[in-house]
Amino acid sequence: MKLHPVRTYRSDEQLAKEDQLAWKVAQVAIDPVAVEPDVVEMIVNRVIDNAAVAVASIGRAPAVAARGQAEAHPVAAGGAGSTVFGGTVFGVGGRFSPEWAAFANGVAVRELDYHDTFLAADYSHPGDNIPPILAVAQHAGMDGAALVRGIATGYEIQVDLVKAISLHRHKIDHVAHLGPSAAAGIGTLLGLDPEVIFQAVGQALHTTTATRQSRKGEISTWKAYAPAFAGKMAIEAIDRAMRGQTSPSPIWEGEDGVIAWLLDGPEGRYEVPLPETGEPKRAILDTYTKEHSAEYQAQAWIDLARDLGARHPELRDPANVTRIVLHTSHHTHYVIGSGANDPQKFDPTASRETLDHSIPYIFAVALQDGTWHHVDSYLPSRAGRPDTVELWHKVSTVEDPEWTRRYHSNDLRLKAFGGRVEIDLADGTRIVDEIAVADAHPLGARPFARPQYVQKFRTLASGVLSDPEIERFLDIAQRLPELAPDELAGLNVVAAGLPTPPKGLF
């Protein structure tokens, strides 16, 4: 990897195109380096993972509404069109304009907050790259090998940006790293010229910068739509750039660019790691998926809470507990912990999206139930149970500098997302325990591999898809690198009895 210095430039400094980060991203995208076998294996795993969580959410209101928007935009000219999760796999009736198909599928993937993650200087769900890149692959008649190359680039660029540039510190939503990465991945997929990719990356970034209010306070359904919108914008940016249209430049480094006015300002300095020419794109191997449907920083805490409840069942009764303090990282404390100062995180009537970002709620329920379920654990009846509310309100978080240091460590053997819990009991005793990473993490107690990804799909698809449809999808997904263009439409699922989308403008 090579570190590329990035800073702002005055307009009279005239930063050359070749020295701009967007151009360097384009150079990574056009590098024809082979995708290594272990990366191919993980890409297949993440395609299965995305499909699993999309299937589990396709009947939920945000995904249904997004599907309705896509279905109002039938296949566009210039290609075969793209498929939408839950609809017809083959035939004209099941094909839609690629940007809208990517949008609908992106909402389905993100709705339950249940797919892969990468956390460093910023936060991300790199699997959000898959819906737009897949939609364009279907529309443009690309094969499975090309799709694999495109996904490898999407992951690489997003992870590299997340390692170097913090958006969250300036309250900018993390999808501002997704627009450029998806555009770069589509550029690789289609084999576009670097100039086209350069322009598309700039346009995708320019149109996907937004505030983090979508993840603050009473969290709305837009939380699932934000990354889908970024993927849709990436496709539209590629389309414009292919037509010869240009974009704001330098988009990151300009005097009125993203760094100068949205991030660290004119004095901001970054070093962005990018693969050198001929260096394999391996960033997907640094990412990790979720066993539980909750914010990633909650994954390890769910596992610890389950274990504590089994070993100390007395902790499940709030009458026995005086207080529970989670000593954890800056992000966990200030984003999903009591440091956020969001009263909604302690409100039994809060939305699912809000409870998903409340570690006090999540820890209390996992402690009592000894399990975590993507639907049942968020039901209003579950959140409103009096003994749960009482226990939940005894949970707080504090930032621990050591856990913050480990959270930001570039050494993946030390990087951690958990913390230490101290539980004071009414009888005066104290229970102390800690966990560094989730059980499903590559360094965890039960790391996810192909069998676990397949089982996650089977579990979430049960009762939603027929058994033959489950087996059909798993077969074609696991043959991804060898798929012919006409087989890519099969990377979709058909579900019976889906709700009719509500009426809108289209």
Automatic annotation (TrEMBL):
The protein's enzyme class: lyase
Can you tell which superkingdom this protein's organism belongs to?
Answer: Bacteria
Please write the reaction equations for the catalytic activity of this protein. Answer: (2S,3S)-2-methylcitrate = 2-methyl-cis-aconitate + H2O
The Gene Ontology terms for molecular function here are: 2-methylcitrate dehydratase activity
| UniProt entry keywords in alphabetical sequence | Lyase
Q: Specify the MmgE/PrpD C-terminal domain's residue ranges.
A: 292-480
> Which InterPro entries does this chain map to?
MmgE/PrpD_sf, MmgE/PrpD_sf_1, MmgE/PrpD_sf_2, MmgE_PrpD, MmgE_PrpD_C, MmgE_PrpD_N
Q: How does it assemble?
A: Monomer.
PANTHER family (UniProt xref): 2-METHYLCITRATE DEHYDRATASE (PTHR16943:SF8), 2-METHYLCITRATE DEHYDRATASE-RELATED (PTHR16943)
Q: Which family does it belong to?
A: Belongs to the PrpD family.
Q: What is the designated name of this protein?
A: 2-methylcitrate dehydratase
